[in-house]
Design brief:
With 469 residues, this protein is an alpha+beta fold. The chain is built from 18 helices and 14 strands. It has a 6-stranded mixed β-sheet. It has a 4-stranded mixed β-sheet with strand order 5-8-9-12. A two-stranded antiparallel sheet has the order 3-4. It starts with 5 loop residues before the first helix and ends in a 5-residue tail after the last helix.
Length: 469
């Protein structure tokens, strides 16, 4: 098929998929009001006619065709760096399509156990690439009682599981939560949420199916209403994206779309590989947002005439440190890249997890710093409608002035963005996402413990203590 146009992508969403949102079963996804902003966001990845974006979002495949760069397997440092550059210009729908890098990262290990399933990964990756499809990372189970294993739950469907094995495939049942953009992709790439034990073999299941597969339903929620004023909601009005509660009600999966079907030894490898690529993209976005927050703190302090205040300068220094530490962490992870046996480069696992942990564990503190600099106007500033009103607007222009030549509209835009980013629709979503996307803080702690060379650290400590061993 080749590259899609934005119009073709939009039309492709009306394929009979079962979608619920706001108490309504939506049959015309492409034209429903709730989906207009999210679809516009996703369409940015199909802007192949943009001369500035095209070199960033496309690449030449080994077959000589042109494909979206999200499908490029990094084999040189330049290609790995281009993938990060792509992350700065790609929507979240394009971002989650990076799930194929996670699949390819475990393909060699899977091949040793099941060559057929490893071949399925390669074939479906090429199918998605050559048809310019988008895919969702479908990983987090309902989990039920967190103190119990998957097979110990009061309801065995609390983790997606195989309920039937047939000659032509498997049947699965369960639900996956927090699936960003699930309603706006073409393929649902499902994998285990964690490592599994032998007794949990039925839960060690991974596969890819079209969104309109019978038995699949997606229940949506977003952090923002369908239509918002871009002046009052400069982030939320342009970045809204539904989160999907994806239900698998006895869904049949043909064998040629299965990646795991009881191979419990590799369940954790799938989850870890996905976490690496998801955290990498998340850090690219996090660095940009940290830079914006730092700039907002500087702007608002200048507007208040407080930019020389020692307290303000200390606060902005904290934001600068936060921003640059994230950037340096990303740079380190790329410069100290690792590789798979077949030559695929990926960022340093320890470097990415340490940086993600730092970003997530300090994010709320940085929001506090920005809000402290800005003050109460963050949540009490009137809206654009009042600024445009002849009477109310006159009062705003008088009392929001901090000097003879204050640009009132600029000042309001700065405060409005601070509110939207940290204390309103997008901000509320981001306060949780910063912690939970790519796995919560515990997930990074686990990966740091697995990849840090503690033996070397112990040896160094003993040597420093004068102990010779």
């Amino acid at each position: 098929m080749g590259l899609m146009t934005a119009a073709q992508y939009r039309a492709s969403l009306n394929d009979g998929r079962v979608i619920y949102w706001g108490g309504e079963k939506i049959t015309d996804v492409a034209n429903h009001p709730r989906f207009q902003v999210p679809i516009a966001v996703a369409c940015r990845d199909y802007a192949y006619d943009d001369p500035e974006l095209e070199p960033i979002i496309t690449y030449r495949t080994e077959d000589g065709t042109t494909a979206h760069r999200v499908y490029q397997v990094p084999r040189t440092t330049e290609e790995l760096e281009m993938r990060l550059e792509l992350g700065r210009h790609m929507s979240i729908v394009g971002g989650v399509t990076g799930v194929y890098m996670a699949l390819l990262q475990v393909k060699d290990r899977l091949s040793a156990i099941s060559p057929r399933f490893a071949h399925n990964i390669e074939r479906l990756y090429l199918y998605a690439r050559d048809n310019d499809l988008r895919a969702a990372e479908v990983i987090t189970d309902a989990k039920g009682d967190r103190s119990k294993k998957a097979h110990e739950q009061h309801d065995p469907d609390m983790y997606v599981r195989i309920v039937e094995r047939r000659n032509d495939g498997i049947v699965v049942r369960g639900a996956k939560l927090h699936i960003t953009g699930a309603a706006l992709v073409h393929e649902l790439v499902v994998m285990p949420t964690k490592s599994m034990r032998p007794e949990e073999a039925d839960y060690a299941v991974a596969f890819s199916i079209p969104v309109n597969t019978p038995g699949v339903s997606i229940i949506n929620r977003s952090f923002a209403p369908a239509e918002l004023n871009e002046f009052d909601y400069p982030a939320s009005a342009r970045h809204s994206m539904p989160e999907g509660f994806v239900v698998f009600d006895d869904v049949f999966i043909p064998w040629d779309r299965v990646f795991l079907a009881g191979e419990w030894q590799l369940a954790g490898a799938f989850a870890a590989a996905l976490g690496l690529w998801e955290r990498t993209l998340g850090l690219v976005i996090a660095h940009h947002e940290a830079e914006v927050m730092t700039g907002l703190a500087q702007l608002v302090s200048e507007q208040q005439g407080k930019d020389r205040d020692a307290h303000i300068q200390d606060t902005i220094a904290e934001l600068i440190c936060y921003t640059e530490t994230i950037r340096m962490g990303i740079d380190y992870a790329v410069r100290h890249y690792e590789s798979t046996p077949d030559g695929m480069l990926h960022p340093n696992i320890l470097g990415i997890n340490v940086t993600k942990y730092y970003y997530a564990s300090h994010f709320h503190e940085m929001v506090k710093h920005l809000q402290d600099v800005a003050g109460g106007l963050v949540i009490t500033l009137p809206e654009e409608a009042e600024l445009r009103h002849p009477e109310a607007g006159a009062y705003l222009r008088k009392y929001l002035a901090t000097g003879a030549n204050t640009d009132i509209e600029l000042r309001m835009r700065v405060y409005t963005l601070i509110r939207d980013l940290t204390a309103d629709a997008y901000g509320g979503w981001n306060l949780v996402t910063a912690l939970q996307a790519g796995g919560g803080l515990k997930a990074q702690r686990i990966m740091m413990a697995r990849t840090f060379d503690m033996g070397h650290a112990r040896k160094a400590a003993l040597q420093a203590a004068g102990v010779k061993r």
